[in-house]
Amino acid sequence: MTQKANILLVDDRDENLIALEAALTSLDQNLVRANSGEEALKHLLGTDFAVILLDVIMPGMDGYETAAHIKQREKTKDVPIIFLTAQEVDRHQVFRGYSSRAVDFLIKPFDPWVLRSKVEVFVELHQLKAQMREQARSLQRVLNQETGEPGRVLAEQLAQRSRQVQTDLAALREHIVDNYQEVDQPLVDAVRRVDRSASRLSTLVDTLHGPE
How many Å apart are CA 102 and CA 21, to the nearest integer? Predict the structure, then answer.
């Protein structure tokens, strides 16, 4: 049986959290509330989340700052973030969000069906990654039993290549953010797609290299 995924809902207004819960209840996943960026970071210390819905405008630590902290942590850097905002998103906000590695923006009031569809995709990806990790553990056991040292060497080489791809992508993201006025949207979208693919590959390779 597939384990339920955790979804983090972050907004300083209770009525907005209630609206998010109403839209997502039918997914039958674990919905976790946070009324501030600080509270969200505390939840992330001990719980694994499939996706984070994060309000942009909050008192104290706003959504962008909260996202930056999330992405700085090794444990949470790959958790997808969907920003929620009541304002029209201008080009600068898009690139500021991109620098935080957010995957999308939704304008309030949002369409519940659109929100539910977007979140469902990330829940499915999260559950797929969990299955991939388990398959990778099984494959590593086979490699170690049948190939011994050559299998470990191959896993290390794959891990090194995966880390290099992540490094190159980080440099490309920084270039896009620093030059957002000259960069066109198709390039941004393409880099996001590569980034997501590289993240899935990294999950598999890192597990092969050394599961906990």
Answer: 21
